[in-house]
Amino acid sequence: MKLKRQNLPQLPASIVRPSYDLQSVRTGIAHIGVGGFHRAHEAAYTDALMNTGEGLDWGICGIGTRAGEITMRNALASQDYLYTLVELDDRPDTEVRVMGSIRDMLLVTEDGSEAVVTRLADPAIRIVSLTITEGGYCMDDSTGQFNAALPQIQHDLAHPRAPISVFGLLCAALAKRRSEGSGPFTVMSCDNLPHNGDVTRKATLAFANLIDAELAGWIEGNVSFPNAMVDRITPMTSVAHRKDLRQQHGVDDAWPVVCEPFVQWVLEDKFVAGRPAWEKVGVQFTDDVTPYEEMKIKLLNGSHLALTYLGFLRGYRFVHETMADPLFVEYIRRYMDDDVTPQLAPVPGIDLTEYKQTLIERFSNCAIADQLERVCSDGSSKFPKFTVPTINRLIADGAELDRAALVVAAWAMYLRGVDENGDRYRIPDPRAEFCQALVEEDEGLAERLLGREEIFGAQIPRSMAFRDAFERNLLRLRTLGVSGTLDLLLTR
Fold first, then answer.
1. 200 to each of 166, 192, 223, how far by Cα in Å?
2. What is the pTM for the complete model shown?
3. Distance between CA atoms of 48 and 100, rounded to whole angstroms?
4. Where do the Mannitol dehydrogenase C-terminal domain residues begin and end (predicted)?
5. CB contact at 8 A, 126 and 185
6. In sequence order, what DSSP letters do the residues of 203-263 get, joined into one string?
7. HSE-up (13 A, CA, CB side) for residue 360
8. CA 413 – CA 418 distance, rounded (Å)
9. Domain ranges of the chain
10. Which of 93, 227, 397, 403 would give a disulfide with 289, using CB separation of 3.0 to 4.6 Å?
11. Residue from 117, 485, 184, 82 nearest 314 by CA
């Protein structure tokens, strides 16, 4: 059964479908970067709210800024913007659910900048949300400043009426709303980076100041940028996932999304033009998201990086395969318990011991088959946010450095592009060639790699103790392999 609005009544009874009238949904959110995570998270929460009979004026219009997003747009458009969310778990009580919260999608490359800016400037749009990846915020990690030299930013500075970048589009739309008196919208980041709202605000104001200082002042005084902690493991959708959906559930979906049952969203309640009543479907609103954010980024994302490069070098290709190896489980437990947990402030409503056990169980989920390649991707952008802060604190405290140094040593080995079995693989990172050049020669490797302040900051290159720990673990990986290195580290 092809997934379309007219076919919804004929879908199997086991499939949850929208209980609301799709034609009654009005758009109130524009979302830039419609990928798997957005469709499994913000769009899923919004659909859940609509299923209660509320929030029908908060439908989502997707916005794409990259040429490659035409595939997603065409897939969704071919099925009336419906898609299937499939929960994957080792338990049998998982849900298959058709989502209807996304109602439209525009592409800069296809529909043009003017059409996108006009949509964003529509007074009905009261929230513009983002999932543009850690590297999409145009921030220089070594300086913490906006990088105006990037090609898309230079284009928008030269052609402010035909923007192609996220921040060019946001500022053009806000300028239009300001001139038309239709008021601001909330800009809400849903990306995995510390203080994501603050980062979005900084990048938006930096760009605005480059084109119009008065606009920047208006944005600063009127637009809100709430911080958020978001969490749901969402693997890349595979051909096998689509095939399984057809064979097991009778649904022909051009691009379903698969995810784990666990989902969490902690969000600061700072919205200038209203918001959906997401608290009715499980979103936790708070005045300060910082402790939740630190917990998630250091424990979940940091632990993901700690196991992923080691696992890939060992020859594993899925997270659950890595977690089936007792050495990896013990290593991750030690990393979380001994290196990260002492750095965390109390988190209201969260038992950290239970949370860490939940992470072990989530990483071990066989049914979700989360690809290590997905977690490995964009390492040069992930390290500054997920691992470097933990290392900096360990250095400052004079603490044990070997477990954390092994994470970096494993990345250095991973960048060589060959695992312990001699199998070659690609490096999914926009700066792959640059990073691979840093580790090409053994001589001076530590100085070249650790000295890149845009990745490792200023503190790590100055720490001889960390450099020694890095070189010690790099040598162990070369001579003992991954298992031998972990065995030695865990028996000390």
1. 10, 12, 11
2. 0.91
3. 10
4. 288-475
5. yes
6. HHHHHHHHH-HHHHHHHHHH-----EEEE---PPP-HHHHHHHHHHH--B-SS-EEE-S--
7. 19
8. 8
9. 5-286, 290-491
10. 227
11. 485
The whole-angstrom separation of Cα 90 and Cα 260 is: 10
Please provide residue 73's backbone torsions phi and psi, each rounded to the nearest 5 degrees. Answer: -60, -45
Whether residue 213 contacts residue 251, with contact meaning beta carbons closer than 8 Å, is answered with no
Q: Tell me the three state secondary structure of residue 321.
A: helix
The architecture in CATH of the region 5-286 reads: 3-Layer(aba) Sandwich (3.40)
> How far apart are the C-alpha atoms of 428 and 342, rounded to whole Å?
32
Six-digit token string for 335: 């990393």
> pLDDT tens-digit profile of 138-176?
998 778 899 999 999 999 999 999 999 999 999 999 999
- Can you read off the two tokens belonging to residue 260? 């784990």
Distance CA 310, CA 288 (A): 34
170-196 per-residue burial string, b: 16 or more CB within 10 A, e: under 16? bbbbbbebbeeeeebbbbbbbbbbbbb
Sign of torsion over alpha carbons 329, 230, 192, 366: positive
DSSP 140-184: ETTTTEE-TTSHHHHHHHH-TTS--SHHHHHHHHHHHHHHHT---
How sure is the predictor about 478, in pLDDT bands with cuts at 50, 70 and 90? Answer: very high
**Hey, what are 274's tokens?**
């209203």
Contacting residues for 361 by C-beta, under 8 A, at least 6 apart: none
pLDDT value for 297: 93
Among all chains, which residue has been given the structure tokens 């938006």?
Answer: 204
